[in-house]
Write a structure and sequence with these properties.
Pfam families: N6_N4_Mtase
CATH class of the largest domain: Alpha Beta
CATH architecture of the largest domain: 3-Layer(aba) Sandwich
Catalytic activity: a 2'-deoxyadenosine in DNA + S-adenosyl-L-methionine = an N(6)-methyl-2'-deoxyadenosine in DNA + S-adenosyl-L-homocysteine + H(+)
Structural class: alpha/beta
Family: Belongs to the N(4)/N(6)-methyltransferase family.
Number of helices: 17
Radius of gyration: 32 Å
Shape: elongated
Largest sheet: 11 strands, mixed
InterPro entries: DNA_methylase_N4/N6, DNA_methylase_N6_adenine_CS, N4/N6-MTase_EcoPI_Mod-like, SAM-dependent_MTases_sf
Number of strands: 29
Helix content: 25-40%
Number of domains: 3
Protein name: site-specific DNA-methyltransferase (adenine-specific)
Distance between the termini: 60 Å
Length: about 600
């Protein structure tokens, strides 16, 4: 019987946007840096990006693919409030499709040992997990962390009072992801309260002994594993033998269990004073776990996070009010929550990405913890909440959140970017032309990205605007190139290098003849070379359904126009096209 692959389906799942890989334009007036270095490890190249996050993720892909160590996102939960004008099925399908599109690019951005952490509530958590299983592979699911976001019940709850969120954790490659252990807390160390009689200060003033310990279990189960299978089959185990206590009492492990050590190991531990038999020396043995031997190792993170450990919604709201008391952000996350995630999933210097920046908590925490960060936000609160918050972090004026626990005193900075406008627009006659807002350098960078080249203008060779290898380059010009100019260019490039020439037009030779005459040149015409590549002019792929395009209504059929009028308009359009009006240049090509 053949196995069928089970997957989640929804309306419009097969549709995927043809995203335009836009360039990023820095706004120097909004970029912000500390006036001096606080430490040698200060980071100044963090990025705060204003624009649609799907387009921003696409814009980052070429430079950051395979480099992001930790991704934290707090997407809209699709609770229905933002989708009131749609029926539930369509609302749910739109949300799943938009999340899938983002997750696919996020996965490409992640390092091979990187991880993704997504906060979500019960409304979509289970569906989102199945989508993540498809994108990342079910084998790369790490955990579902349950975070207690509220410490008290809601009196007006209709059914049960919602008190938790989920944090879905995925690795790009689970076999390579190594979650870091958390530092031990004072509460965790409280159980280490026993001390040996020979511990203390010697005559030479030095401390002798191994310090405090607690009695750990000296047995293990015989119900599972290889040892359990052997015992079930033979009824014999090397880990079952009588132990005589100091009081002379002979003891055996409880039914279904065995000693954790074979006899020879037990005898060695006994000589090392690591076995404890209770105060009177007649109890079953326990193993001494010394704090000094495990203190530096930390403890593995558990999957239930209590508000007392990582904060709650109320904590986060108080943190955000410090930066904007007049208009606090609606659903922030506490700094301690993000801090724990970054502690588990990254180390100082790693790149952290948050493409749903919200109130900017991820960037603020990453900055204080010495991580490089990238955040994306489309809403106005990037200027009213996020940027002011980050400026205070840089200046060392943010004393809340985790500042005290990490000893934050300011430093570093960030660059503020916005997405460039769409490269292709329509002129007043409806013809696709290069956006007149682009200058020559921006056009060269945009076409380099579209063609898969790294934009890096040479200071030596005027025709080297970017490269894809050590010998393959790109040159972008809005000029119409003649055969003589192409010949001179070919001679300059030489036979051991290759050059992609993007120009408005070329004269005196056909494209077929050009490849024969100049084998080291590849000629492409602008904008024709990119017209079919992307959805041009689409600026908003946000998860807010209010921003989605409204379906066009069918217009009533019009009466046929007179041939003379139609011909007149067609002639005018053709003339305008040939004149190249409405942009840097039009379709005046051979």
């Amino acid at each position: 019987m053949s196995k069928q692959k089970l997957e989640l389906t929804w309306i419009g799942k097969e549709k995927r946007p043809m995203l335009e890989p836009r360039i990023l334009l820095e706004d120097p007036e909004k970029s912000y840096h500390a006036k001096y270095r606080v430490t040698d490890s200060d980071i100044f190249d963090n990025r705060l990006i204003f624009g649609d996050n799907l387009l921003a993720l696409k814009a980052l892909e070429q430079e950051f693919a395979g480099k992001v160590k930790c991704v934290f996102i707090d997407p809209p939960y699709n609770t229905g409030s933002a989708f009131a004008q749609y029926d539930d099925g369509l609302e749910h399908s739109i949300w799943l499709g938009l999340m899938r599109d983002r997750l696919e690019i996020i996965r490409r951005l992640m390092a091979e040992d990187g991880s993704l952490w997504i906060t979500i509530d019960d409304n979509e958590s289970h569906y989102l997990k199945v989508v993540c299983d498809e994108v990342f592979g079910r084998v790369n699911f790490v955990s579902n962390v349950v975070w207690q976001k509220k410490s008290s019940p809601q009196a007006n709850a209709t059914w049960l009072s919602d008190s938790h969120d989920h944090i879905l954790v995925y690795a790009k490659d689970k076999m390579r992801f190594q979650p870091r252990k958390l530092g031990r807390t004072e509460k965790q160390n409280e159980i280490y309260k026993h001390s040996d009689e020979h511990d203390g200060i010697g005559e030479d003033g030095k401390w002798y002994g191994r310090g405090p310990w607690f009695p750990g279990d000296f047995t293990l189960s015989l119900a599972s594993g290889a040892r359990g299978k052997q015992y079930a089959k033979t009824g014999v185990s090397d880990n079952i033998y009588p132990i005589t206590t100091p009081s002379g009492r002979e003891v055996l492990p409880a039914k279904g269990r065995a000693w954790a050590y074979v006899r020879s190991s037990y005898e060695r531990l006994l000589t090392e004073h690591r076995v404890h038999f209770g105060k009177d020396g007649s109890s079953k043995p326990t193993i001494k776990r010394f704090l000094s031997e495990i203190e530096g190792d930390g403890v593995p993170a558990m999957t239930t996070w209590h508000y007392s450990e990582v904060g709650e919604n109320r904590t986060a709201a108080q943190e955000v009010k410090v930066f904007n008391p007049e208009s606090p952000f609606a659903t922030p996350k506490p700094e301690k929550l993000i801090s724990r995630i970054l502690e588990i999933a990254s180390v100082p210097g790693d790149i952290v990405l948050d493409s749903f920046a919200g109130s900017g908590t991820t960037g603020a925490v990453a900055h204080k913890m010495g991580r490089r960060w990238i955040m994306v936000e489309l809403g106005d609160h990037i200027d009213t909440h996020i940027a002011p918050r980050l400026r205070k972090v840089v200046d060392g004026e943010d004393g809340g959140g985790i500042s005290a626990s990490v000893g934050w005193n300011g430093g570093g900075g960030f660059r503020y970017y916005k997405l460039a406008p769409s490269l292709i627009v329509s002129d007043r006659w409806g013809n696709p032309v290069i956006n007149p807002e682009y200058n020559a350098a921006q056009l060269a960078e945009a076409l380099a990205k579209l063609e898969g080249f790294t934009y890096a203008p040479s200071e030596v060779q005027w025709w080297q605007h970017g490269h894809s290898s050590e010998r393959d380059f790109i040159y972008v010009t809005t000029q119409n190139l003649s055969a003589e100019q192409l010949q001179a260019l070919s001679d300059d490039v030489g036979s051991d290098q290759s050059l992609l020439v993007c120009c408005a037009a070329f004269h005196g030779v056909t494209a077929a003849k050009a490849s024969e005459r100049w084998p080291n040149l590849t000629l492409k015409k602008i904008p024709k070379m990119v017209l079919a590549r992307c959805e041009w002019g689409h600026d908003d792929y946000s998860l807010n359904v209010a921003n989605l395009p409204i379906a066009e209504k069918a217009e009533p059929a019009k009466e046929p126009e007179a041939a003379s009028g139609s011909a007149t308009r067609k002639t005018k359009k053709s003339a305008a096209t040939n004149a190249g009006q409405g942009g840097l240049f039009g379709e005046n090509e051979e």
